[in-house]
Design a protein that fits this description.
- Monomer.
- About 35% of the residues lie in helices and about 15% in strands.
- It is of the alpha/beta class.
- Helix 2 (about 45-60) packs across helix 3 (about 85-95), helix 10 packs across helix 11 (about 255-270) and helix 12 packs parallel to helix 13.
- The structure holds adenosine-5'-diphosphate (ADP) and 1,3-bisphosphoglyceric acid.
- 1,3-bisphosphoglyceric acid binds near residues 74, 163, 213 and 365.
Length: about 425
């Protein structure tokens, strides 16, 4: 068959137009869940796994052979045993109440053979796609290898929709049909509705550790938001731009200049860009570190900032009080260590309180979800999004490769 195919369709459209019995359906999911430090590691927050279940159950229910693919962490293009998908497969299997066949690679003869012996409705989880250099490089050969595993492609990985990788973008050029999954549709619908024409004032809180990915989004946020609050590992690059000492804190030297420009831009635009005025510092990156609260300009040389301080959380509460829409990505501190969780929990508690007063609160990101779950407040927010960088990308209004690859007209392969 030739001719262009265009699809904004989801899995219901696919099932309505095709008998999926026995069909090999490749589903890109985002099962990049936080893991414990145990050996072997265990999934510590299953929100992303739970989010993927409706699509998996639907396709299995249609009799499809369901082939799941995801990344886990950032293995830097090589096999990292602690980032194998086994703990994810075990937890997913428990959630689905069904065996999940776990493969030790994501392409190749062994995978193809095992797929050919799958029964209708069986579920397989491939190994971490980022073990192959072709994944993040969006490599054509690797994309074709993935595409060769399936009849149809589904993208349900909202958390990775902002990445143009082989399993989220490249593969779509080589499959007969490509549609979005139920989680993807649900996330896009909710988030677009909330941020396209937001109820104002709108605030965005950005923290976490993926500084280089997320600092670049702040430029667009200055155009869109009325208030921007910064926390987590993000702040030290800004402190450095202000000429402050940051000790051994996380800092991205390549982005210091950008941080300076962003502060100038926010000021020129009259957008409130709030940086923490006090910081909880530690003598090492450990749960049992010595800690102290210091002013932002007094971080000791050998210490590192691992949380925002109490004065900061009060100022943040004040700044958020008038806001009607709040988007939060990235914890305020290393909440995994109890000593450095207070700032994150205080912001979570403030947002839960504002939600009860009618404010729209959106929390996104694997670790941010884990943090509000740990605080016991996840069900008190308006929306828990499985995507952090993805929801910021959507708020930014930029092209999301995982969406455009599905929508793109591509020549149907022969
Ligand atoms: N001051 C800090 N220094 C180092 N890491 C931090 C700091 N504050 C927060 N973090 C870490 O940031 C991580 C989450 O970052 P990120 O992946 O960007 O968030 P999300 O997964 O919600 O998008 C957490 O594991 C947390 O420990
Ligand atoms: O965890 C994720 O993003 P998030 O931390 O922004 O929520 C996604 O799985 C994407 O991972 P990546 O940022 O390593 O591409």
């Amino acid at each position: 068959m030739t001719g262009p195919v265009s699809s904004k369709a989801d899995i219901h459209d696919l099932a309505d137009s095709t008998d999926l019995t026995g069909k090999r359906v490749f589903v890109r999911v985002d099962l990049n869940a936080p893991l414990s430090k145990d050996s072997p590691p265990a999934v510590t927050d299953a929100t992303r796994l739970k989010g993927a279940c409706p699509t998996i159950e639907f396709l299995a229910g249609q009799g499809a052979r369901v082939i799941l693919a995801s990344h886990l962490g950032r293995p830097k293009k090589k096999v990292v045993d602690s980032l194998r998908m086994d703990p994810v497969a075990a937890r997913l299997s428990a959630l689905l109440g069904k065996e999940v066949i776990k493969m030790d690679d994501c392409v190749g003869a062994a995978v193809e053979e095992r797929i050919s012996s799958m029964g209708n409705g069986d579920i397989m989880l491939l190994e971490n796609v980022r073990f192959h250099s072709g994944e993040e490089g969006n490599d054509e050969t690797f994309s074709k290898q993935l595409a060769a595993l399936c009849d149809y492609y589904v993208n349900d990985a909202f958390g990775t929709v902002h990445r143009a990788h082989a399993s989220t973008a490249g593969i779509t050029k080589f499959v007969e049909r490509k549609v979005s999954g139920l989680l993807m549709e649900k996330e896009l619908k909710y988030l677009k509705g909330a941020v396209d024409n937001p109820v104002r004032p709108m605030a965005c809180i950005v923290g976490g550790a993926k500084v280089s990915c997320k600092i670049t989004v702040i430029e667009a946020l200055i155009e869109k938001c009325d208030v921007i609050l910064l926390g987590g590992g993000m702040i030290f690059t800004f402190y450095k731009a202000k000429g402050l000492g940051v000790g051994k804190s996380l800092v991205e030297d390549d982005f210091v200049e950008l941080a300076a420009r962003l502060m100038d831009k926010a000021e020129a635009k009259g957008v409130e860009l709030l940086l923490p005025e006090d910081v909880v510092v530690a003598d090492k990156f450990a749960a049992d570190a010595e800690s102290d609260v210091v002013a932002a300009d007094s971080i000791p040389e050998e210490w590192m900032g691992l949380d925002v301080g109490p004065k900061t959380t009060s100022s943040f509460e004040e700044a958020l009080a008038p806001c009607k829409t709040i988007v939060w990505n990235g914890p305020m501190g290393v909440f995994e260590f109890d000593k450095f969780a207070a700032g994150t929990f205080a912001v979570a508690s403030c947002l839960a309180d504002l939600t009860s007063k009618g404010v729209i609160t959106i929390i996104g990101g694997g670790d941010s979800i884990a943090a509000v779950e740990k605080a016991g407040l996840a069900d008190k927010m308006s929306h828990i999004s499985t995507g952090g960088g993805a929801s910021l990308g959507l708020l930014e209004g930029k092209d999301l490769p995982g969406v455009s690859a599905i929508e793109e007209k591509t020549p149907r392969p022969m």
